[in-house]
Amino acid sequence: MEQFLLWIQTHPWQSFFSAVLFTFVFIFLRDITQKKHTIQRNFPIVGHLRYFLEMIGPELRQYWVANDKEERPFDRTERSWIYATAKGQNNNFGFGTTEIQYEPGYPIIKHRAFPFPEAKAYIHAKDPSCIPSLKVIGAWRNRKFPYRPYSIINISAMSFGSLGKNAVLALNKGARDSGAYHNTGEGGLSPYHNEGADLMWQIGTGYFGARDEHGKFDIHKVAEKVRKNPKIRLIEIKLSQGAKPGKGGILPAKKVNAEIANIRHVPVGKDCISPNAHSEFDTVKELIDFIERIAEATGIPVGIKSAVGEIEFWEELAKEIKSQNRGPDFITIDGGEGGTGAAPLTYADHVSLPFKIGFQRVYTLFQREGISKQIVWIGSGKLGFPDRAVVAIAMGCDLIHIAREAMLSIGCIQAQKCHTDHCPAGVATQNWWLQRGVDPVLKGKRAAKYIQGFRKELLSLAHSCGYEHPLQFNGKDIEISLGMNRYQTLEELLGYKRDSVEFTKFQDYIDFPERLPTLTQ
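Structure (tokenized):
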């Protein structure tokens, strides 16, 4: 052995090439004898190239093959706008539009001949991007701790587990610095959600962070957690989500490390799959009772999140809310085009209605019952761009939730490997080496700049259309292309008007009720 090691030391290059040759011989023999992979059996050694190219296919298409408008779910120009906004760089584009403006579905926002003068715009606390909610969540039902969001643009549900700790830290810092709130995702409250942002605690079918040692929902644990965490301002009960409606959340075994297992009270290294249904209720009346039980125990507003499929549930819910004068303080409608993390392909592609169709069906039901103004409406599902936010607002949304766009702002490259634990950008992974590439401080600043830049452009659009506040947009302000030389207003196309907004002046909507740690609940 000593002579062998000495020979290696005295002949390094020969040793290296001998080792390479031996490796190739070993792979060759293994390939031609194995029966699992046809390509490798028929083309030993070089057959591995096919799997390597397949593995890096999304990156190759992004940077070498696809043009600026071909990529999905976000094309290169969309990603470029987010990246530039997050970095505080020039996010303008030159030489005119590259869009096909006669393509069916293309929206046009109609400016006014006499815009709202930007010189008259009110600037709150030296923040020219501040856009407060016009509605106070929980005020209608007299919750003990109502909440007016400082920002109508907020970070949607992405769990610690699906995202790495550095990514969650960055998003929370970004939400804090921009005044947005941060939805925890159904994985529950983690130590990385405590950087100072207001929180929407999402409770899904797994009741993570809200369950006892047997996995059952524990109202006392919920009340205690809210009491100890004054930054928890809202609770969202997740019925379903756009990427996998009717199916529980999926956290692959590779991502379930000891820390996540401890937070969720699940086994280490095993797939963490939430049930596809809640165990605490299975009727509309029981759902309303569950909402009121949580609101009574915590004092904070409680709402629901759901994708839209069958409409009978929503019809019954609207009727019960009206008859009982109880129920959710807010409703988040998630479109089928949304989705982070992991989902079966068929669910991601074919289950649940797209946002515009789903929202229109639900919102008009509540309008017919005369209770739509009681609810704070939140839109979710690929709405992280000013033009899409304007359309959602004109349809009736009071707030907008953004997820993947927020991920892009902290460095996501759309590699589409969220479900593998091999996210090259270190965002959607628990791999310690990959995560170290995400600096929470730097990326937190970028998340904040993205949200602030988004709001500034949204305000600019509102001013161009003669409004002081973006929630003054309505369906007549937008025209949708129906094909060559044919346009129709959004209001005519969808067949309804959003509820009228009784806006007075900006200064009337900057009271932000606090939840102080000393308050007893």
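The mean pLDDT is 88. The CA atoms of residues 289 and 327 lie 8 Å apart.
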